[in-house]
Amino acid sequence: MGVVNKVLRLKHKQDLHLPNYNDTIHLHDGESFHIVNDVVYMGGYPVPGPMQKPMYDWLNDNPTLFVEDTRNF
User: Fold this and answer.
1) Is 27's pLDDT higher than 90?
2) What predicted TM-score, i.e. pTM, was given to this entire model?
3) Cα angle value 68/13/59 (rounded, 5°)
4) CB atoms within 10 A of CB 33
5) Residue 4 vs residue 7, higher pLDDT
6) Are 40 and 10 in contact (CB under 8 A)?
7) Among 8, 66, 19, residue whose Cα is nearest residue 41
8) Distance (Å, rounded) from C-alpha 10 to C-alpha 64?
9) Which of 47, 51, 54, 60 falls 20 to 30 Å from 22 in CA-CA distance?
């Protein structure tokens, strides 16, 4: 199993171009990504299916772009 629970916050705004996705995704400073059981969520909602794998890979392949903000309550 991969990532069970992780919250990442983007350090600086970023324009993201995912493979096989024509539109540019404009991300803001502090944009939050929550990964639960290998599913990526943004704004409390899962990222659309075709974007899951490329978004997950981008998050995991670029750790210096993020601050980990996982909290245990």
Assistant:
1) yes
2) 0.86
3) 40
4) 21
5) 7
6) no
7) 8
8) 9
9) 60
